[in-house]
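User: two proteins, same treatment. go.

Assistant:
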Amino acid sequence: VYLRCPQARSRALEEERHREKQEDQFFAGEPWDSFQFDKGEDPVVDDGSVSSVEDLDGFASADSLHSGPAKPDLAQESSESWAWSSSEESDFEVHAKHDTSSDEEGLFIDMDERIKRRVEQLRKEDEWRKEKEAERKAARKAERAEKKRLKREREEAEAKKKAEEEELKRKQEEEELKRKQEAEISEERRQSMLEEQKIQQMQQMAEQRKQYLEAERQRKAKEQEEKAREKMEKK
């Protein structure tokens, strides 16, 4: 009964047109639109009416394919074809020239179609969000794995470098110790040679002293013999 009133019906149609216009403007700028045309399967897009993302401006005209053929201005027709009735059984009466059943059916079919399209849009948008979230999770997981790998490689490189430095230090210490030992051995040998030389020199000096004393003894003995012979000759 409410929609049989010309004023109520006209207001309902105006509100529906305004809502459709707002929805078209709203969804025209959504990221989902590019997803729909790139990844989704939409009968309006797939029938060839929209060939690329640049054809988004024709989205409103594509909506008209879902809603059927264009309707005349029902508000104007209603004002001309409806009349007040003085019947006691009903407050309003349908004019004979206008069939309201087909208009009402078209209105509700159009609303039902838009609801279905909206549900499909929400479903695809939810799938798109889930796909993007899965991609972000995979990217974060890969990033964490890459960070762990780089950290492990850095730690391994640091450990290898530290081991090489310790090995080099150990070799240097061994070489230094070896040089010190060789120097000590060389010094001991030099000292030993000096001691031997001193001993030899002392032995030589002792031998020379012995030879000198023996020569002196022989010289004195010879002198005594000569003196004794001279005395004998004088006698």
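Protein 2:
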Amino acid sequence: MSITKVHARTVYDSRGNPTVEVEITTENGLFRAIVPSGASTGIHEAVELRDGNKSEWMGKGVTKAVSNVNSIIGPALIKSELCVTNQKGIDELMISLDGTSNKSRLGANAILGVSLCVARAAAAQKGITLYKYIAELADARQDPFVIPVPFFNVLNGGAHAGGSLAMQEFKIAPVGAQSFAEAMRMGSEVYHHLKILAKEQYGPSAGNVGDEGGVAPDIDTAEDALDMIVEAINICGYEGRVKVGIDSAPSVFYKDGKYDLNFKEPNSDPSHWLSPAQLAEYYHSLLKKYPIISLEDPYAEDDWSSWSAFLKTVNVQIIADDLTCTNKTRIARAIEEKCANTLLLKLNQIGTLTESIEAANQAFDAGWGVMISHRSGETEDPFIADLVVGLRCGQIKSGALSRSERLAKYNELLRIEEELGDDCIYAGHRFHDGNKL
């Protein structure tokens, strides 16, 4: 069944910035997808096409991307008469229409919106759920399905919040839960106790939340953040059952080969900046003191040697995000140089569902884990909930248990777990090996 109509429009993400929504019509009806956007974006990501007209939307308009869907991609898809279930063929057609290595002509935000819409339409044509369709595309096992461990970003710093805290995300992971539903309850309880502690220690405004729903108190150091998180976990009685993860996002504070943990201070003293080896020592001190099971982006996106040196010294999950940008060439290099052991997969970093699936399988084939991720500028579209189940990744991060654009993904996972019943398992402590369960 081919596509009969393609239409894009401007809608708004969770930060109030314009983004692209795409609708596709087939004989089965109308299907819709909305594209997210990031705040701390890697320089190697596919291009999110923005208008750049400072007089409208502060330069963040997406009218060019919308027009590219309506005037170039849509007509080409309809003319091609490609069946909606030909995901790879449709994605390859759009990549060919763009003709660049980073989707800078048409925009990854234009191409991805169509790609995700096509998957929804194809699942409907086949009469199966979206996660089952994605599993078919990825040639992933479906017996049983794996429900992921949620890594809740409960405390925000870095580019996602005000205050002086350099590191961007402090996450909790209910690995000791017996189900996703229980993980949600545990996460909710810890999050609310953390909010209470933040207000008690830093004042009423400390309960205000950042872009991803986590509290954003005016904290100075990672130790201050981790002490408060561990206290909240212990208050709930979940010691040993709820672990911790960190996303440093250090590319924003990488300067002249060193790392400036005081980068938010306008007159930061260069003598206090850390060398890669000193930063490694700092990470090791945190790993010894706190129940940390996952470190994302410990080093900057092109500091390859520091990544590979650090991986040899730890036995926790090391996630590559800005380093790899869901890009198969960079993933291959990271695998070859032994820089990490887990891929963070973001759909809009690469721009099509087909390439995202290929990136996940590339990581799995190397023995890596894969974590599915939202973006800081999110929408109500829950596509990544189906993606993480379809790919058997075993882990997802979609912010805190706050803000509806974050809960849209978690609530969809609750529905999927309930629907599957005995035909699914919760990844739990084996979150890194979801594809092997």
